[in-house]
């Protein structure tokens, strides 16, 4: 559990369908509830196993709060990153639990000029271990070249 910082405004645009809401509002800027619903839809679209999932969003502080129980630490971390790497979010308040606790991964913020081989060499001393990072970030990454500056990645031990 904890608070995770991300860089607001450079993440991917959230195009996931929003969870249904009672009375949709259509202001020029999406409401906090609309953003929370889209974040929830984004997590569900990834197919990560989590029970009791809820997401709230505070537009004044760009803070997304996530609650629920993930099956594994890796799933929990992927959910945090899925929410944090969206353009509206600057911080993620992780209030999730894990069914089977295990050691946490390191997080790494991608810099301009980075690729998975370069990051792999930095963390593992071997650029050929890039697939370990790629697999640790699936389904968030569709291919090994799908990273951008400011994005936060999981780096497993």
What secondary-structure arrangement, pairings included, does this model have?
Blueprint: E1 2-5, H1 32-46, E2 50-58, E3 63-72, H2 73-84, E4 91-100, E5 106-109, H3 116-124, H4 130-136, E6 152-155
Parallel strand pairs: 3-4
Antiparallel strand pairs: 1-4, 2-3, 5-6
Q: How would you describe the overall organization of this protein?
A:
- The chain is an alpha+beta fold and 157 residues long.
- It contains four helices and six strands; from the N terminus they run βαββαββααβ.
- The chain has a four-stranded mixed β-sheet.
- A hairpin with a 4-residue loop joins strand 2 and strand 3.
- Helix 3 packs across helix 4.
- The mean pLDDT is 89.
- Keywords: Cytoplasm.
- Its main location: cytoplasm.
Name its key features:
two-stranded antiparallel ribbon, Membrane-bound Lytic Murein Transglycosylase D, Chain A, four-stranded mixed beta sheet, 2 domains, 4 helices, alpha+beta, Histidine-containing Protein, Chain: A, 157 residues
């Amino acid at each position: 559990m904890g608070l995770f910082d991300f860089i607001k405004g450079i993440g991917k645009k959230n195009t996931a369908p929003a969870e249904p809401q009672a009375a949709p509002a259509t202001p020029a800027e999406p409401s906090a509830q609309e953003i929370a619903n889209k974040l929830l839809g984004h997590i569900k679209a990834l197919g990560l196993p989590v029970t009791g999932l809820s997401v709230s969003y505070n537009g004044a502080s760009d803070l997304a709060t996530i609650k629920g129980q993930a099956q594994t630490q890796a799933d929990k971390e992927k959910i945090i990153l899925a929410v944090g790497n969206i353009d509206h979010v600057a911080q993620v308040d992780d209030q999730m639990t894990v069914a089977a606790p295990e050691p946490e991964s390191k997080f790494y913020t991608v810099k301009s000029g980075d690729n998975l081989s370069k990051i792999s060499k930095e963390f593992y001393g071997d650029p050929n271990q890039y697939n370990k990072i790629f697999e640790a970030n699936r389904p968030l990454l569709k291919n090994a070249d799908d990273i951008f500056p400011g994005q936060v990645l999981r780096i497993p031990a």
